[in-house]
Task: inverse folding
């Protein structure tokens, strides 16, 4: 499972590290402290938080255009038959990609995984950081 440092969560959600710390203090996010090291937040916890927040806030109203590479966190993966539907929250942008189930499995995509949506025309490709690959 992917664990994220506070600074990584802050960067993904476009907020400050202090905001993430406040959310943890308020119980809105759950942080873990491994045996050695800094506190981390499970990626699945961040994905759940993003889904709940998006449902409360509604769609983002933004006047900027996205670049062709959108770093984000996987919030949902639906596998059915040969197809997988992958949902990524990249800042204020929600990106959905349909791919083969095999590709989603090879990338190890699950809620909480870090991923980049690469947009080219009408195609969205998904990449994961090399450290997440087995």
Result:
């Amino acid at each position: 499972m992917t664990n994220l440092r506070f600074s990584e969560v802050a960067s993904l959600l476009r907020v400050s590290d202090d905001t993430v710390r406040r959310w943890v203090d308020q119980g809105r996010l759950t942080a873990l402290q491994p045996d050695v090291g800094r506190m981390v937040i499970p990626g699945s916890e961040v994905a759940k938080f993003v889904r709940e927040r998006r449902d409360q806030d509604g769609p983002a109203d933004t006047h900027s255009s996205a670049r062709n590479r959108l770093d984000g966190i996987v919030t949902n993966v639906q596998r059915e038959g040969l197809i997988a539907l992958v949902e990524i929250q990249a800042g204020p942008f929600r990106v959905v990609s349909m791919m083969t189930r095999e590709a989603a499995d090879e990338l190890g995509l699950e809620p909480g995984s870090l991923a980049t949506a690469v947009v080219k025309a009408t195609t969205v490709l998904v990449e994961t950081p090399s450290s997440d690959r087995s």
User: Anything to note?
Assistant: Strands lie at 3-5, 40-42, 69-80, 83-90, 93-100, 114-120, 123-127. The mean pLDDT is 85. Residues 43-57 form the longest helix (15 residues). Residues 49 and 55 are 10 Å apart (CA to CA).
